[in-house]
Design brief:
The structure is a homodimer. Chain A is α+β, with helices and mostly antiparallel strands. Chain A contains six helices and ten strands, in the order H-H-H-E-E-E-H-E-E-E-H-E-H-E-E-E. Chain A folds into two domains: 69 residues, Arc Repressor Mutant, subunit A (Orthogonal Bundle); 138 residues, Chorismate lyase-like (Chorismate lyase), CATH 3.40.1410. In chain A, 27% of the residues lie in helices and 35% in strands. Chains A, B: Pfam families: GntR, UTRA.
Chain lengths: 233, 233
């Protein structure tokens, strides 16, 4: 396989993509077959096939063995979210970062968290509460549970110099996770952390991650009043 | 290019991916060169190159022309969000959907929206307020502005049978957009819509989309109390 060949399916994919985006081929329409497209582009049928597979993987076309390929009527539009190291996120926009560890202790997993963080009965977890600051102002209140059985190097970490967020991103690779985003009213601890009224509407993100050995961590990040999580589509 | 060749870089990419994920190669480590990997896998160097390019595109390795390829210390973990047709989302989980158009009118673009929705001074927009229901209960309150200059077929639409959400997803393809997610306290209209107290913390998503002809729509979806937006990583 030459480099030129490796790239050619991408060029064809891009042209097919253009036709879908610019509605040369309307939503729901049957597009020409592989043989016809291969002739048009002067390439191998397998190259067209590879390009179509990419569009199908992205949900932009639907392929049926006998019925041919149709343009999706409602293609998925994807947005990307990344899990940042908060320090790096703050510093990337020119801010000054620091964090304060407010609580750190070992405790049995609270029963109400058993569903999202499945551990044996009575399993001990490390519980931390951290306040992350941007330019001296509280930015994120982080409450975290860490599965001690799945983070063996953790005993050495006091999270004073490096936050639990940063340590885990760097040291506890995960294979999967669930995230959810929601609004909550400030309770006493959050109202105090952000110097705001009880009940203030706050944006929060909860995340649980795991690897082959089981759960790693469950964390709730609650953001300062007025925060917006932004992304592009 | 045979089908076997087209797939072989993916097999090699998956093996490299496994080594990165399982820390056979540690974060920050220099990995073997292309020639060495091509020998190990018994394939062309260009195939290894294609696989490495894929990992680099995903941010999992960093390639330097002379310094070789290193495993990323903090690789991005991506989550995908899709923009659903609310009717389909509700029906997919077995619910019954209906919507009610509460307001529909043409008006000049409100000044405070000029930043996110750049239109000429005095441009007219279509403003709609829709309440989306799941199993008879209010699920999403939608407030929307539509650029009339960029949605020519819109005049025929009363959004009674098909919601603006569904019509636009089906008929107004966009090339890009911005999204943001935040918490807000229920104002009188939202408290009324969701039969809840003034000030209740609600989750909201704001989205603006555009194509080559300019902005298409700006919409704020505010969700019923207790809603969580969920995704996987």
């Amino acid at each position: 396989m030459s480099t030129r060949d490796a790239k050619s399916w991408i060029l064809i994919r891009d042209e097919l993509l253009r036709r879908v985006r610019e509605r040369v081929w309307e939503p729901g329409a049957l597009i020409p077959g592989e043989v016809e497209l291969a002739e048009e582009f002067g390439c191998a049928r397998t190259t067209v096939n590879r390009a179509l597979r990419d569009l199908a993987d992205a949900g932009l076309v639907h392929r049926r063995r006998r019925a041919g390929t149709r343009v999706a009527v409602n293609p998925p539009h994807k947005a990307t979210l990344t899990i940042p190291i908060i320090r790096e996120e703050v510093e990337a926009r020119g801010g000054t970062y620091h964090h304060a560890l407010q609580q750190r202790g070992t405790r049995p997993l609270p029963a109400h968290l058993g569903g999202v963080f499945p551990l044996p009965d009575g399993a001990e977890v490390l519980h931390t509460v951290t306040l992350h600051y941007e330019d001296g102002r509280p930015y994120i209140h982080e409450e975290r549970y860490i599965n001690l059985a799945n983070a063996p190097d953790l005993a050495d970490q006091d999270f004073a110099r490096i936050s639990a967020n940063e340590w885990l991103v760097q040291n506890a690779p995960y294979t999967g996770g669930d995230m959810s985003f929601f609004a909550l009213p400030a309770d006493a601890a959050l109202a105090d952390a952000f110097d705001t009224s009880l009940g203030t509407a706050l944006f929060a993100a909860e995340r649980s991650t795991w690897n082959d050995q089981g759960p790693i961590t469950l964390v709730r990040m609650t953001y300062a009043p007025g925060f917006r999580m932004r992304t592009s589509i």
